[in-house]
Amino acid sequence: VLVVESGGGPVQPGGSLRLSCKVSGFTFSAHIMGWQRRVPGKGLETIATIYTSGNVSYVESVKGRFTISRDNTKNMVYLQMTSVTPDDTAMYYCVIDYGANGRGRGTQVTVSS
After folding, report:
1. What percent of the residues of the chain are helix, what percent strand, and what percent coil, each to the nearest 5?
2. Phi first, then psi: what are they for 102, rounded to 5°?
3. CA angle, corner 42, sides to 36 and 44, nearest 5?
4. In degrees, to the nearest 5, what angle opens at C-alpha 82 toward C-alphas 38 and 113?
5. Of 6, 19, 94, 99, which sees the most CB atoms within 10 A?
């Protein structure tokens, strides 16, 4: 299984960013996909999950600001981030089945003015 994230970078507070994740090597549509993030000195936090049904769930801190989506025809997962704050600064990881079946190397998002 290969999981590759992209789209991270610097962004100003209040700005937007779209993360992408390309997955290969397994039956993408049959698995739960999600995004986790890690702030230095803290553990991994699952912030967004999209189920095989298309249903989604979010951690409270990103509800209304982030949107997770998937394209089963392209084996892609996306995280649209809006109204970002410095608290969103973290390494963001794309994960399969909450990380049990795969996790990418991450893409860094830095929110700063």
Report:
1. 10, 50, 40
2. 155, 150
3. 20
4. 75
5. 94
